[in-house]
Write a structure and sequence with these properties.
By secondary structure, the protein is of the alpha/beta class. It contains 15 helices and 14 strands. Helix 10 packs antiparallel against helix 11 and helix 10 runs parallel beside helix 12. It starts with a strand and ends with a strand. The structure holds adenosine monophosphate and zinc ion (ZN). Adenosine monophosphate (AMP) binds next to helix 1 and strand 9.
């Protein structure tokens, strides 16, 4: 097991991962607000969290991950009201499209996807505890967190309470707080809005409260990692800390990790600028989502990701180099006479460097650099006919190992269900057999293989570097 270092937003420094239970990481990742289809900015954050989860597995940790679904808040309630349907009817299609998006980007499933509307009881218990301890107060059917009682407030974001004058009023604020800095835990119901019973009358939870209650329910009062995009740091995560720690008296989360935003052509993604993309928008433009995932991996999560179509093309070209290497490898001969395999140490080095890069604050760009160093070495060994017996399998095994984290190398898995019965690997194997048959001047067998493939709708093209194939 390798212990990674992460940049902890709490304290703003790199620190070694420490977990409550040795060998196990319990992590909470803020999920989607299901009032619309996710855009590729949201998905950058979800891909980052997926890679974090996969990297922890790669480094030898067990992972218990929660991603919540915010299915009640101002936006979902507003959306349901304008559509004239119930909250559940309104959010259901967006929940479905969220899971489809995860699959389309090969994001692994978390252990839990709790919905806010199914955890109202836990949320009410938390509010009750805060009221009993004097951290929260009721006002006109709503309950507020009393920020002035929390000496630590601001420790995550650096927010300076003294900069906001006490008693100052905010015009848009239609709830009656004691102090403008206080935030709402429970909102008293307004006419026509969905509501749940509470000791303070009918109402609904505030967004921050949802994540605290669900995080502690599934992962315990203190857990290891909490993630989100940088926009979540304040006020969302600051408020989560305030509520949770005031209620339990224990540290809520040890390591806070935040991903920078995705921007488009250097600008913020927004509907009005016409640069707001969902996965469907990109697929409609013929974009290969495998290249999108690769593009997301190629930039460190703490840097802004500037999404451009040129960048996507570069990602596609990088994937092509990887596919090409695999193709050449499958068609290269292994030799009994090569005894000093260069591949074996290259594989060991790849896995070492790849793991080190991930353990270094999830440095995916460095991890990809290690992979491309390896690709060069394999290509050289193939060119100079220095593959020893077993080298092909060694390379393939190492690639599948790194792909447990990257999730982009297996071209066939990305092509999905359209594959008609015979896998790419089976075709590749037949082509190797055909080449060997030709080398042994067994042309009857070579022709037989070609005919078999033609029947399957596979077209062969003999080139100087080997035989290529495509599906008709
Ligand atoms: P939401 O559905 O708005 O609650 O957001 C879901 C996740 O997407 C949150 O973790 C946000 O921080 C993240 N997010 C929102 N906009 C962007 C963006 N442009 N780039 C990266 N992540 C984002
Ligand atoms: Zn959250």
């Amino acid at each position: 097991m390798q212990t990674p270092v992460f940049y902890n937003t709490l304290g703003r420094h790199l620190s070694q991962l420490e977990t409550v239970v040795p060998g196990e990481v319990r992590m909470y990742t803020c999920g989607p607000t299901v009032y619309n289809t996710a855009h590729i900015g949201n998905l950058r954050t979800f891909v980052f969290e997926d890679v974090l989860r996969r990297a922890l597995h790669f480094l030898g940790w067990r992972v218990e991950q929660v991603m919540n679904l915010t299915d009640v808040d101002d936006k979902t309630i507003g959306g349901a009201a304008s559509a004239g349907v119930s909250l559940g009817e309104f959010t259901q299609p967006f929940i479905e499209s969220f899971f489809q998006d995860l699959d389309r980007l090969h994001i692994q499933r978390a252990e839990h996807y709790p919905r806010a509307t199914e955890h109202i009881e836990e949320m009410l218990e938390l509010v009750q505890k805060l009221v009993e301890k004097g951290y929260a107060y009721e006002s006109d059917g709503s309950v507020f967190f009393r920020i002035g009682e929390d000496e630590d407030y601001g420790k995550l974001s650096g927010f300076d309470l003294s900069q906001v004058r006490q008693g100052e009023r905010v015009a848009s604020d239609d709830y009656d707080k004691e102090d403008v800095r206080d935030f709402v835990l429970w909102k008293g119901a307004k006419e026509g809005e969905p509501a749940w019973d509470s000791p303070w009358g009918p109402g609904r939870p505030g967004w921050h409260l949802e994540c605290s209650a669900m995080g502690m329910k599934y992962l315990g009062e203190s857990f290891d990692i909490h993630c989100g995009g940088v926009d979540n740091i304040f006020p969302h995560h600051e408020n989560e800390i305030a509520q949770s720690e005031s209620a339990t008296g224990k540290p809520f989360v040890r390591t806070w990790i935040h991903a920078e935003h995705l921007i488009v052509d250097g600008e913020k993604m927004s509907k009005s600028l016409g640069n707001f993309y969902t996965l469907q928008d990109l697929e409609d433009r013929g974009v290969d989502l495998r290249a999108l995932r690769y593009q997301m991996l190629s930039v460190h999560y703490r840097k802004k990701l500037n999404f451009t179509f040129d960048g996507l093309a570069d990602a596609g070209a990088a994937l092509k180099r990887l596919d090409e290497m695999r193709f050449r490898l499958l068609h290269a001969a292994e030799s009994e006479t090569v005894s000093d395999s260069v591949i074996k140490p290259a594989c060991e080095r790849l896995l070492q460097e790849f793991g080190d890069a991930l353990a270094n604050d999830l440095n995916t760009s460095e991890a990809l650099a290690a992979l491309f160093g390896f690709v060069r070495e394999v290509n050289q060994a193939v060119d100079s006919e220095r593959l020893a017996v077993g080298d092909r399998q060694r390379v393939l095994d190492s690639l599948s190992r790194v792909d447990e984290v990257l999730g982009v190398l297996d071209a066939e898995a990305w092509r999905g269900a359209e594959v008609d019965g015979s896998s790419d690997e089976a075709i590749d194997r037949l082509l190797v057999e055909r080449r060997q048959a030709r080398e042994a001047r067994d042309f009857a067998r070579a022709d037989e293989i070609r005919d078999q493939l033609t029947e399957q709708g596979i077209v062969l093209e003999d080139t100087p570097t080997g035989t290529r194939w495509k599906r008709q």
